[in-house]
Amino acid sequence: MSVEGTIKMLGRRKVGLVLSSGVARGWAHIGAIRALVRIGVPFDLIAGCSAGALVGGCYLAGQLDALENWALALNRRRIISYLDLNIGRGGFIKGDKIVSELRRLLGASRIEDLHVPFVAVTTDLVTGHEVWLQRGDLAEAVRASISLPGLLPPMQIEKRWLADGALVDPLPVSACRALGADLIVAINLNTDILGKSRRAAAPTPLPLGFDPSALLEAQGLAAEGPLPETLTRGMFGQEGDRPNIFGVMTTSLSIMQDRLTRSRLAGDPPDVHITPRVGHIGLLEFERAEEAIKEGEEAVERKKAELLDAMEVMGLSVHR
Predict the structure, then answer these.
(1) CA-to-CA distance for 267 and 202, rounded, in angstroms?
(2) Phi then psi for 132, rounded to 5 degrees?
(3) Dist CA 91 CA 170 (whole Å)
(4) Collapsing DSSP states into helix, strand and coil, what is residue 278?
């Protein structure tokens, strides 16, 4: 039997979209989804980790435009307004304001009510196991998946303390395949190691993407006078090439995500692997949404021929 005959007998093949972690680089997923939609790629299921869970969940809830508008409106002052300090209680910030924003975007949407299957990948902090959230409150699932250790406290769901899925699977191809995908398109934001070199050649950004002294003042921590210089310099400052606390945290996360992704891909690669060049964007530079979104679109365009060929093999109509 011909390939065309076999496809017709089996019915239309399912296309799965995998969206990786990436923190602020995650805005690139918005551009990637828009480009894929223009090409005519049908999404039969979506698996997202961390930032990928956020963008994927908003897309399926019909809130991608709202998410993009919110991201494009972010600046350093607005970012500071969302950071409700919570030092010593599981994360640098409480995350209540972020949860409120998620509620505004997602409302009371439930994962099982979305028009295609969706999974948000998280990590069980007790067992270390990978946890796939496929039912329940969408905003809570996204909040759990983006719980970056050290920054956001873990989320308790069904008596389990769940943190960022990037700790175990930054690019959840296996979850997407387990849901029944025949053709997997993966958007991977954790490959652009050379982006660090491009970043070094550019003007040096603030280590956190915002002025920490303004954050401390906004939270009232400096009301009794300035904090000790050794504390603020160690946490936020930069002395030559010596990294500060947050520099160590974000760089370590980048290395971990890159190595974990390479390891997972060796055993279970996607059919189409799209890799936006966003390594020059700091993990916490959320105000750089415009360039991240643009690069997400351009990355899909660079892979368009390969993507269209893969879809044709699966018997899917495409826009040449």
Answers:
(1) 36
(2) -100, 115
(3) 20
(4) coil
End-to-end C-alpha distance for the chain, whole angstroms: 27
The SS3 assignment for 139 reads helix
CA-to-CA dists, residue 25 to 34, 195, 208, 277, angstroms: 16, 12, 14, 10
Query: How are beta strands 118-124 and 45-49 bridged, if at all?
Result: parallel
Low-confidence ranges of the chain (pLDDT < 70): 1-11, 86-91, 193-247, 250, 317-320
User: Which residue carries 């409480």 as its tokens?
Assistant: 94
Q: Which of 50, 109, 145, 254 is catalytic?
A: 50
Q: What pLDDT shows up at residue 180?
A: 94
Using CA atoms, how far apart are residues 261 and 184, in angstroms rounded to an integer?
15
The pLDDT of residue 210 is 45
Provide the 10 A C-beta neighbour count for residue 269: 13
8 A C-beta contact, residue 92 and residue 151? yes
Name residue 179's amino acid: L
**CA distances (Å), origin 275, targets 25, 103, 118, 267, 295:** 12, 30, 22, 18, 10
Contact 185, 307 (CB under 8 A): yes
In a 3-state reduction of DSSP, which class is residue 263? Answer: helix
222-241 burial, b if ≥16 CB within 10 A, otherwise e?
A: eeeeeeeeeebeebbbeeee
Predicted model pTM: 0.83
> How far is residue 171's CA from residue 102's CA, in Å, rounded to a whole number?
22
Q: Angle, to 10 degrees, between the axis of helix 96-106 and the axis of helix 138-145?
A: 140
At residue 256, the 3 state secondary structure works out as helix
- Catalytic residue, from 164, 169, 192, 271: name it: 164
* Cα–Cα distance measured from residue 165 to residue 21, given in angstroms and rounded to the nearest whole number: 8
Active site residue 50: yes
Contact (Cβ atoms closer than 8 angstroms) between residue 131 and residue 123? yes
